[in-house]
Amino acid sequence: MATQALENPAEIDTAGLIITPLQPTIGAEVSGVDLSQPITDAQRVAIRAAVVKYKVIFFRDQPLTTEQHAAFAGQFGPLYTHPTTHHQSSNTAIHSIAARDEREYGDRFKRVLDSGDAYHTDTSWRLVPTWGAVLRDINLPEQGGDTIWVDANLAYEALSDELKQRLEGLHVTHNFLGALKAVGQEYPIVAHPVVRTHRESGQKILWVNFSQQPQILGVELSESKALLDEILRQYKRPELQVRFSWRKNSVAFWDNRATVHYAVRNYADFPRELHRILIADEPLWADL
Length: 288
Ligand code: SIN
Fold this sequence. Notes:
It is a single chain. With about 290 residues, this protein is an alpha+beta fold. The chain has one domain: Clavaminate synthase-like (Double-stranded beta-helix). It has eight helices and 16 strands. The protein has helices at about 40-55, 65-75, 100-105, 110-115, 150-155, 160-165, 175-180, 220-235, and strands spanning about 10, 20, 30, 55-60, 80, 95-100, 130-140, 145-150, 170-175, 190-195, 195, 205, 240-245, 250-255, 260-265, 275-280. The strands form four sheets. Strands 1, 2, 3, 4, 5, 6, 7, 14 and 16 form a nine-stranded mixed beta sheet that branches. Strands 13-8-15 form a three-stranded antiparallel beta sheet. It is globular and about 55 Å long. The termini are far apart.
C-alpha cells in the first residue's frame, strides 16, 4: 500500500523562528534561535507572541550558563526573586527545583509515587503573580521526570454550561503562608477569581492552585470541595494537556496566567534538578 508523507506542520514566522505545534491548543517546539546570545527585538516579540498563543513553548539543544538563562528571561520582564529560593547561584532569581528533600520524597519509589505533585501555578499567592517562567534542566534522570502543562482556557471551555454558571463570580484562595513562614516571611491570603480573563488573549482561564489549599469563598465548604473536585478532574484530562520529556539542554517557557502545571515524580530518589526563573508582571494588572 502506498504511504503518503505527513505534511510538516511547522510554521516559519517573520523573525525566522520555526514553530512546531505539539497539541491542537497547547505547546509548541521552537527552533531557529540561539538563546545563549542576545535576541533581536523581532525575535523577542515573536517568542512572547508564541508563549501567549501556545501557552508553553519548548526549545531543544540550547546549552545555557546561569548568566545566559537569566539574560534570556530578563528580555521578557523584570526577574522575580522567590522568597523560598536558596541562593546558591550568582543570580538571585535562579530557583533550583530539586527533589532532594528526604522528608518529602524519601528514597523509596512507592513513597515518591504517593506524594506526587499538585496541579499548580507559580506565585499565584501574590496579588500580582509572575506572568512567565523559564525552566531549564540541570540534572535529569535517564527516564521519567516529565512535566505536564494544562491548557487552562480549554479546561474552562470544556466545562458544562451549568458548571460555568456555578463558577461565575466566585473567588478561590491561594494560601502559601506555611512555606513563607518557614523562611520568616508573611503575605496575606489572597483570593483570585476562579475564572480569570487573560489580558492579552482575552481567553477565560480556569485558575486554581491545588498546592495552595484552595477554598472557594462565599459557598458552603462542601460546595467548595465539590467544585474543586470537578476542576481537578478537568485538569487531569489528557485531552487538555501537553507533556514534555526533558532532554539535556532543553528549555521550557510558559505563560503562568494561562496554564497550570504538574511535575511527574516517577524517578525514585534520583536527584532531578531544574533551574527556574520567574518573570514579574506589571503591578497595574493587580485585578487579573
Ligand atoms: C515547577 O513546578 O515550577 C517546575 C516543574 C518541574 O519540576 O518539572
